[in-house]
Design a protein that fits this description.
Layout lengths: L1 H15 L4 H37 L6 H6 L5 H21 L5 H4 L3 H9 L4 H9 L2 H19 L4 H9 L14 E2 L42 H4 L11 E3 L4 E2 L19 E4 L2 E3 L2 E3 L2 E4 L5 E2 L2 E6 L2 E3 L2 E3 L2 E4 L5 E4 L2 E3 L2 E3 L2 E4 L7 E4 L2 E2 L4 E2 L2 E4 L5 E4 L2 E2 L4 E3 L2 E4 L6 E4 L2 E2 L4 E2 L2 E4 H6 L32 E2 L8
Parallel strand pairs: 1-3
Antiparallel strand pairs: 2-23, 4-7, 5-6, 8-9, 9-12, 10-11, 12-29, 13-16, 14-15, 17-20, 18-19, 21-24, 22-23, 25-28, 26-27
Helix pairs in contact: 4-6
Length: 467
């Protein structure tokens, strides 16, 4: 009975059968999870596809870069790039050698961003650190500029030297050099048919028609006066034959060098003197000459680079004058010369004379300084032409050539400017000097000096025609 009652109580439940649907309800969450996973996978695939498309549109950058280049894809990267330009671009350039972030960021971005933010606090510090090296480099040119400025006083002389390079000067002088194996010359350099050098002999110089004065009273100034017959552009030049012509290579500044034998001469080797090298020179074998009881001393030859200026004989003593020996100042030779014993006029200085291979051409007084001009010292060139000292303007005149002034034995003949085209068009071959330019070379005419027939101040070394 009891069993039957229990059976009747459970029968409705068994009849309703609620259990069969229960497994379906239990299985639904698993299916839903699978579906959710599938949706999630599809979403992730779609997201990856969209991200790959966006990366391809940005030029194929690395997967980490699109997050920075395209801020809308995620909130965090969108905020970070906005912070990075203010802080990282200023510091990251210095960290690039050691950090890995610069390899992820485009190289163009850091370069562009500092340019965008020159007013930022750190960018202002960063440029100051970078130009440190250029600033040091710029300091050297600045110091060099100061050194150059300190050398500017020598610049006018450089400009002056450039002024002398006239077209006609480049033409070689006609056989003015003294042969290494010969002492005598068949033709005096002053009587050559060349408008740059031809002039009358100092023994027979007449009054020049356009000169203010006649020939000087003292014969050692008459060679200056003979320049009136030279072309006006070249009256500051004086042809000579004191430069020696060699048929071998010379090396006077080499301590061990010695030249070949030379007839009539003995080689005096070079030596050190007070720390300065004094090149060797030739000395004549013959005894010193004696003229009318006056004795002569030998003035040694000297070198100007590889150019040798022959020595000569000079009077041992000269009333009213003192001989100043020549010497080397480094590689420059200061020529020996006669200097007056009388005191110099106020504001004047002495211009030394020179020996032209035949006669001593005496010096003169000139102003120690002159406004707007610089004095150019006289010197021998490689052809044996003596370029007499003269005044050169400090300021050049564009399109013009300066014709140097010269001393005529009485007074200074002022230089002047000539138009460059006119100067270049001058035909020296057709220029005709005044009558008397070739006087006195063939006939011996005694000079009319202070004493009628004075002793020569200098004599050339003579020892015969040929070797």
């Amino acid at each position: 009975m009891l069993f039957s009652l229990l059976l009747l109580a459970t029968a409705p439940a068994l009849a309703s059968e609620p259990l069969p649907p229960e497994p379906a309800v239990r299985e639904a969450p698993a299916r839903q999870k699978k579906k959710k996973r599938k949706r999630k996978d599809r979403d992730e695939r779609s997201t990856s596809k969209s991200s790959s498309k966006s990366s391809s549109s940005t030029g194929g950058a690395s997967p980490s870069k699109p997050a920075q280049v395209t801020p809308p894809s995620s909130p965090k990267p969108s905020t970070q790039p906005s912070k990075q330009p203010a802080s990282k671009p200023a510091t990251e350039p210095a960290k690039q050698p050691t950090s890995s972030q610069p390899s992820q960021q485009p190289a163009s971005k850091p370069a562009a961003e500092p340019a965008r933010q020159p007013a930022g606090g750190k960018p202002a510090v960063q440029p100051a650190s970078k130009p440190a090296t250029p600033t040091a480099a710029q300091k050297k040119p600045a110091s060099h500029a100061v050194q150059t400025a300190s050398k500017k006083p020598a610049a006018p002389k450089q400009v002056v030297k450039a002024q002398h390079e006239r077209p006609a000067d480049r033409k070689a002088a006609p056989a003015l050099k003294r042969s290494y194996h010969r002492s005598s010359h068949h033709q005096h350099p002053g009587r050559v048919r060349d408008a740059r050098y031809n002039r009358p002999s100092w023994r027979h110089v007449r009054h020049y028609p356009h000169a203010a004065h006649g020939p000087p009273r003292f014969w050692w100034y008459r060679s200056w006066y003979s320049h009136w017959w030279v072309h006006p552009h070249y009256r500051y030049r004086h042809a000579s034959f004191v430069v020696v012509s060699f048929d071998f290579v010379v090396s006077p500044w080499v301590v061990t060098w010695a030249p070949p034998a030379r007839t009539g001469w003995v080689w005096v080797p070079g030596h050190w003197e007070a720390g300065v090298w004094v090149p060797g020179h030739w000395r004549p074998v013959a005894a010193a000459p004696v003229v009318r009881g006056a004795h002569y001393a030998y003035v040694a030859g000297w070198w100007a680079g590889d150019v040798y200026i022959e020595g000569h004989w000079r009077l041992e003593t000269r009333s009213g004058w003192t001989w100043v020996d020549g010497y080397y100042a480094d590689t420059t030779y200061i020529r020996g010369h006669w200097h007056p014993e009388d005191a110099a006029p106020v504001g004047y200085t002495w211009v030394p004379g020179f020996f032209d291979g035949e006669i001593w051409v005496e010096g003169f007084w000139r102003p120690a300084a002159r406004d707007g001009f610089v004095w150019v010292d006289g010197s021998f060139d490689a052809d044996g032409v003596y370029l007499c000292g003269y005044w050169e303007p400090v300021v050049a005149e564009p399109g013009s050539v300066w014709i140097p002034g010269w001393f005529d034995g009485h007074e200074w003949q002022e230089g002047y400017w000539v138009d460059e085209a006119e100067y270049s068009a001058t035909d020296l071959d057709t220029w005709e000097p005044e009558e008397g330019y070739d006087d006195g070379w063939e006939e011996e005419v005694e000079p009319e000096g202070e004493d009628g027939e004075p002793l020569p101040l200098a004599l050339p070394v003579e020892f015969g025609e040929e070797e």
